Every structure is written in structure tokens, then in C-alpha cells.
Amino acid sequence: MAGLIILVALAVLVLWVILIYNALVTLRNQVENGWRQIDIQLKRRHDLIPNLVNTVKGAMEFERETLEKVVEARAKAVGAANIQEKGAAENMLTQALGRLFALVENYPTLKSNENILQLQEELTSTENRIGFARQFYNDLVAQFNIKQDVFPSNIIASVFSFEKTDYFQAEEAAREVPRVDLSIKK
Amino acid sequence: MHDIYSQQKQNRRITVALMVCFFILLGTLGYAIDAYSFGTFELTGVPVATLVALSIAGINSLVSYFYGSSIVLKSLHAQPIVFENPSHKQLYNVVSEMCIASGIPKPKIYVISDPAPNAFATGRNPENASIGVTQGLLDTMNREELQAVVAHEMGHIKNYDILTMTVVTVLVGTIVLLSDWATRSWRYGGIRTKRDSKSKGMHPVILILIILLILIAPILSRIIAMSVSRQREYQADTSSAEFTRNPTALASALEKIAQSTSPVKTAHKATAHLFISDPLHRKLDDKEGMFADIFSTHPPIQKRIERLKRMAYGYTTARG
After folding, report:
1. Cβ <8 Å between A133 and B100
2. Sheet holding B79-80: strands in order across?
3. CATH classification of B72-162+228-319, choosing from 3.40.190.170, 3.90.1150.10, 3.30.2010.10, 3.80.30.20?
């Protein structure tokens, strides 16, 4: 009888470990997938920039410096290796693009150019997509990291040596506490 | 994070329950007609009407599940977006952004050429979903507001609200049609059957049953359609804020929608509950209380706006 009880207890324990382990693995995969989503959108932005620079180059002869900054920031962003480097490079690119579009406002011919308007919409959308992909990714990272911290899943996490993942920082949020969960409390 | 999985489960359960109710309702109706033609509740022959009614219920449930969204889109005269049109391209971009924020696959995108600003979603699951907006919405909203409205519809898709709402549309539509038909044949000399000559006048109980079904069915189905949709609007508003982190944009979008008083022309009673705001602008939607709670499809728009503004306040204080 006692043997049976121990056997059942053991079975429950094993089942419980499997459940938590699977939850952790699922989260890790979701985090990786979330990162891929960000990457896709960053590439999309990198691809749009040469097009944009070519379109405005002729009309914006005098703003050479701004244009060069955009091109330079793009090159850096393309070459970035890890998450942190990437975050910094992409923020620089965002700022450079922001300055460029602020300057476009000074050129009435450019401002009403259909090509530019289209490119502007595409870039705005890409910025948003990057933002939302980051939001989605960071929410997942928060879930994943919290799961590795709280009892009892922290035991399983350390036994199977799961590692915490970096947040992808937004520019203003860079010095803030990581955005953990901003969703609405019910 | 509010529990999306329990909402999805609840929606699937409600859909099954609705279909079961539909079977029972039509089955009873068929049985009543059979009993009437036999002149007794005992089955003395082949219950033709019952069998017909049950197969109608079966076919209708299948149609509502698989083709419900096509029926809805057709009845609203929704057209697929045209990429050459800049405002459609922007809509496409906004939908793509919200897919990333909500983590669901891209739905099919439609536009209704109607000046009244409104939006709806339909389908059976996120993999087979459609989202539609009116041209009026594209014309009146700025990018952020459009985004908030699209996010609201994405909320309906993610919660599986679209499944329940679409099935309701088709089933309620059928019941209304049937009851219309029954009322008409009643008026023109009763439901004629071959056995009419044999039956010695009808059993009063059967008579009452048929009358009740004719009267109650449409009311009952409306109550179901209404009560399932009111709660959902609040939930989808919450989802919108969760995806965009910008409840203020949805609040100002709803304000703009509230200002417009023209109805969406292609919308009617059976499809009204699919929209973000009542496309028919019925008075009842501005009211509170039990009666309004049961019969109106949408919560008062002012109340939704207030709720969103409170959320926005919560955000700023939470961010510190």
C-alpha cells in the first residue's frame, strides 16, 4: 500500500516537472519567434531606405549631411551583431530618419511628391511594426524571465539551465525600468 | 493580461449551445406541424415536417460555420481593398501592424463604400477571418484612430467573438425568415397539408404551440444576438488598448463615430451586432437599464469613451 502511494506521488511529481518544463520550452520558442518578427521588420526598413535616399537626393542637395547620417546609420544597423548593439544602432537610425522627414517638410515639391508620400507611409508603418514587434517580444521576454524567477518553476529552470533573455529596448525607455506588463488590469 | 483563452473557450461553447438551441427550436416547430397534420401528438405516419426542419437546422448550422463570413460580406456589399488606392494601402499597413501587435495571422481586408464611419469583423477563427471598414472611416479617421479601430476588430478576431457573432447572424436570419414564412402561410388560410381533410379540427394545444413559436422565435433570437454582443464590445475595447497601448486614440475614434448620424445603408438588423458601433443608430443604444441591456446590440458610446479615458489615465500613472 505504502509502495503504491509513493509510486503515485512520484508519477505526479514527474508529470508536474514535465508540465513546467514544456511551458518553459514553449515560452523560449515564442521569444525566439518574436525576435524573428522584429528582425523581419528591421530588414524591411533597411530595404526601404536606399529607395528613400535616392528619391530625395536631387531635391535636397543642401542637406547632404543629414542624408549621409541616414545612410551611415543604416550601414551600422545592418552590421549590428547582438541584441544590444542592434537596439542602439536602430535607435540612431530612427533619429536620423526623423530628422530627414522633418527637413522634407521644408521642401514643398517633395512634401507633395506622391513617391515621397508613399515612402513616408511605408516607413511610418515599418516604424510602427518594429514598435509593435518589440512590444510583443518584450511581453514574451517578461513572461519567460518571470517564469524563471518565481517558485516553483525557477527550480526546473535552473536544473535544465534555461537562460534569461534581453529586452529589446526602445529609445526613450532605454534608461527606464524594463516595460514589464502594461496591459490593463481588470 | 485578461484571459483570452477562457474567452475563446466560452465563445466556442456559446456557439455550440446556439446550434443546439437552433436544432431544438426547429425540431419542435417541425414536430408541431406534424402533430397538427396528424391531428395528434402520436406519430401515426412519417414525420415529414420534423425531418425537413431538422435537416434545415443541420444545413444551416454548417452553412453558418463555413460560409457565414461570405454571406455577411456579400450582404454588406464589402469589396476587397485595392492596393493602388493610397488610403487602402494605409489600411493594409495598419492591419499588418496590428497583426504583429496581437500575434494573429493577417485577415482578409474589405472596404464598404459608405460615408458613415464604421467597421466590422467576421469569420470562424483567426485563420479564416475578415475585417471590413467603411470608406467613411478611412476618410474621417487619422492614422492612430484607424489603428485603434482596427485593433478593436482584431480583439474580436482573437477572442473568437467573430465565430459566435457570424453564426448568430445566419441562424437568427434563418429564424426570422422562417417565422415570416409561417406568419404568412398562417394568414393565407393556415398551413395546408394533404391530411387536412382527415384531421378533425386542430388540437388547441398544437395551435397555441405554433402561435407561440411564431411569436417567440424572433424575439428569443434577438435577445440572444443582443446579449452576446454587448459585453464583447467592452472586451474588444480593452483588447484594442492592449494592442496599441493607446486607449485615447480609440476614445477619439468613437467620438468621431458618435458624431456621425447617417446609418450604414447596407447594414440591417441581422448584421448590426457585427459593427464597432451600431450602424443603424437606434435610440436604444444610448440607454441604460435592464431593457436596454437585453435588447440593444451596443453599450452606450459615451460610456465606452469614459472607460477608455480612465484606462489612458491608468497608463500614464503606471508609467510614472
Report:
1. yes
2. B79-80, B108-112, B128-134, B119-125
3. 3.30.2010.10
